[in-house]
Amino acid sequence: MSVEVDMDKCMHCGACVGTCPENVLFLNDLLLEVNKGCIDCELCVKVCPVGALKLRGD
Amino acid sequence: MKPKAGGKIDCDVLVIGAGPIGCTAARFAAKNGAENVLVIEKRQEIGSPVRCAEGVSLSWLEELEIDDLGDAIKWKVKGAKLYSPSGHKMTIGKELAGDEVGAVLERDVFDKEMAVLAAKEGVDFMLKTTAKDVIKENGEVVGVKAENMGEKFEIRAQLVIGADGFESQVGRWAGVYDTLKPSDIMTCFQYRLSNIDFDPEHTHFYLGSVAPGGYLWIFPKGEDKANVGLGLQLSRLDGNKTPKDYLDEFIEDHEEFDKGQAVDMVAGGVCVDHPPDSVITDGLMLVGDASRVVDPITGGGIANGMKQAKIAGEVAAEAVEEGKTDEEFLSRYEKRWRKRLEDKLWRNYLAKEKAMELDDEQFDMIVDALSDQDLDELSTEALLKAVADKHPELVESFKDML
User: Do A29 and B188 make contact, defined as CB atoms within 8 angstroms?
Assistant: First the structure.
């Protein structure tokens, strides 16, 4: 699986990017890219200050 | 300097990230003789959007060779007030004056000022330019793959400086360090509230379960406006509640803030780890938040990062002049910045680890015990010494460092 980003909530702060243990997230200015390799650890879901990320299918 | 698709740009020193740390590293590289210094920044505007609570001391300006911060200082405070969960209060800094006082910045203005200082030394800037990967040859970092306005190209440099913040990609692409533990990550949310009633002559810190594993801050930006935010330890987050939810609850419970209007929202992550074993590799130095030198107690990254960036810039100039950018040569950067900063970072890390264990009752006890003390110095050190006086058991693990 992987995570999905609610871009309506995302504030492009990068908290998830620095937290991701697999380095699959990338903040490209105003776009948060989710690349291959997600291990569903959900740390990015938890660290997001505004709750913009969730596991795909949740 | 205009990139062409598939083309190549060459420079002596390449800095990734035009925050104040990247700009300062570039400034001191150029000032000390590096001729071709380039800073790339992925945003279209240096300093924006702000990701900062903006409270700083000003004690480092002279060391950083900054004469005047002009409009970048929005407000000055006389001291700080600490609040325990049940409302005990202590005040720090009754007799402060001049540069010892705390300041609250306009970070977007500050960041641009730092860029201007670098530009005056001859540093080049490219905005809206993103590093997508580091280029390594024979194990040495020799540049980055970059994109600017849809054009893909390479930037080659004798030396790369990664100043790309908490979410540093450069350090991880180059394999300099591991990922962070959840207990060393703070997740933060802040409003800039206007039209509020509060004491604007002090910064205010609320401790305990209002912000588990962290604290809630109020940093004045004027008589009736302030940055009101909090940072929570990632491993202490409760279920599905976000930092924003925690802050909204605090504001709803405090009429003096609830009447205010938010004119700005800020989110971000902060690393409160101890310094990593290494922040260099062949051809690369990391600096600032990207090298994890944020103060683990306060979460402040500007002062440490600026001091470290000056050293990085000086070593970068030496490296370019001597044509040596291998890890062995760059170890002089490690030695110098660690001499300047490392003891205090470790002490504050150990203090943070201790503070993480405290519950609301213990915070009440500590603040109550300190409430009759007059602390004149607005510093973590002064506070820890006062705690050591009343509760030596709390500082046992780092008492030799006080």
Answer: no
Burial class (CB in 10 A: 0-12, 13-18, 19+), A33: exposed
List chain B residues with CB under 8 Å of A19: 179-180, 182, 185, 234, 269
Domain positions in chain A are 3-55
Asked if residue B98 has pLDDT above 60, the reply is no
Distance CA B54, CA B194 (A): 16
pTM for the model stands at 0.95
Distances (CA, A) of B116 to B66, B109, B124, B126, B351: 12, 10, 10, 13, 37
Residue A35 touches partner B, C-beta closer than 8 Å:
no
Query: Cβ A14–B42 below 8 Å, yes or no?
Result: no
For residue B102, the model assigns a pLDDT of 86
Take residue B283 and report the two structure tokens written for it. Answer: 């051809």
Does A7 contact chain B (CB < 8 Å)?
no
Which of helix, strand or coil describes residue B143?
A: strand
The sign of the dihedral angle between the CA atoms of A56, A13, B310, B321 is positive
Q: Which of B180, B191, B188 is nearest to B212 (CA)?
A: B188
- Tell me which chain A residue has its CA closest to the CA of residue B292: A18
Give the Cα separation of A40 and A45 in Å (integer).
10
Contacts of B253 (CB under 8 A, 6+ apart): none
Distance, in Å, from the CA atom of B165 to the CA atom of B268, rounded to the nearest integer, reads 11
Beta strand B37-40 with B124-126 is parallel
Asked whether the beta carbons of residue A43 and residue B268 sit closer than 8 angstroms, the reply is no
Supply the ipTM of this predicted assembly.
Answer: 0.95
Q: Is A37 on the interface with B (CB under 8 A)?
A: no
Q: Name all domains of chain B by residue range, CATH numbers in brackets.
A: 8-51+108-180+275-348 (3.50.50.60)
CATH second-level architecture of A3-55?
2-Layer Sandwich (3.30)
